[in-house]
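User: Hey, quick favor. My workstation is busy. Could you predict this chain's structure for me?
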Amino acid sequence: MNREVGRLLRSALRRRRREFLRLAGWSFVQAVPAFLSGWVIACAVDDGFLAGRPGEGAACWRYWRSPSWSARGAPGTPG
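Assistant: No problem, here it is.
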């Protein structure tokens, strides 16, 4: 990124700080489910299936897919 682009970006972010923080907050909220699902899959694979404990891996996976964590079937969601 050259200096002019960086200067323009910084000035735009300074003028619209509230909008930038709002966008950053919503981006964080949207990233949480992806992070958690990846973490649970890694836990199930590493601590369960690859460690020779398939029951623990399946339990971890089932817990993540339980209705209390899943949005499937909630009003306004497909599926």
